[in-house]
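Go through this chain for my students:
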Amino acid sequence: MYLAEHQKLGALRAIKQIPRKEADATPVLSEALLLKNLKHPGIPIVFDLEEDEKNIYVIEEYIAGESLEAFALHQSKISEKKIIQIGIQLCDILIYLHGQKPSPLLYLDMKPEHIFLCAGQVRLVDFGIAAYLDGKRSAYPSYGTKEFSAPEQWTSDQPGVWTDIFGAGRILSFLSEYTSLPISRGLGRIIQRATQTDMKKRYATAEAMKQELVLLERQKIFKRKLRTEEHLLKKIAVCGSGIRCGTTHFSIALNSFFNEEGLRSFYREANDSGALWKIRKMRRRIVEKDGFLYSGHFCGATGLTDERHIESAFDFEIADYGCQVEDTAQIAYADVIILLLGARDWEKEEAWSAIERYRYCEGLVLVCNYGDEKTAREYAKRAGRRVYCFPLDADAFCVDAAKISFFRTLLQKERW
């Protein structure tokens, strides 16, 4: 391989030298002949084929950029926005390849080192095992890298456009390992569908996968626009009616839900329980970075956080006060005050007292714990206002269907 400069244009070119005696067998020449007929901004251009007595020369566009593999290693973190944009461009390339006439062209070798980023444009290189789905061949090359290849590439099953869709999904999965926060549920669903072992359960076309990525991107742009217009970090204070009524559990669950939904939030310990220190000590897979603890979808401020960056980096702050609010004036700053009410018989008197004490707080939301709907109705009748019933929950860090339903209802009805 040589790097050359066009004498008249001054443009750089990549020149592959192929010994003439190997030309009939080498995949390099086959790749060049294939690329010569393809015209897409995401695919390298083959300008010409030249020859002399000993060699054949393939003159190609020089790709000035870095591979996705190198890009991931050099970044401290990759945003979900960037992952979605890369996914959309990959789908665009696949739409073009699969739309070739008379037969779709399968790429079959998707992996990070074959994808280059050049000034924001995704470029797909190395078409050495690409093949037309023309029905004339009974077998396709079982090459590629198993980590990124679809299962049918290593069995007797016939590959198809769904094979490349699997590869694109694995690329998005690879990139998601380099995000600072867990990816959103929306992106997770797209990756999961694209990489199904059963090819029939994947996206039928690259266009269908692209449409879902574009929709997800639009949703995120809309959320960012709202944040820009409001210029506000919404502050939520979680308070308890008594000791051990579950404010820490609830706060962690709410924090995990927000982050899983793509609404950036962090947990702040505003009591002296030392719960955050215990979380750091007891949980196995926990990462500490830039003053925050990360575990799954949980993000907690350690107290060593740079406060200057919080306003722009997060949508919600969740402050866990436990039952240590002596005067409601100390939480008057909060946009939302969640009063968590104990539901056991010995907790009800304290709960009723707390309802009276917090009654006139602006932004007050009442929540009855332990999934006790009967007691929630009792409290609602006495308070003269809605009381939500938090479902019985074993794991605060796990975002399950019951909690998703509860918190989405809360968001919708309270219009946060």
Observations:
- The chain has a mean pLDDT of 87.
- The chain has three domains: 2-61, 66-227, 232-414.
- The domain at 232-414 is CATH 3.40.50.300 (Rossmann fold).
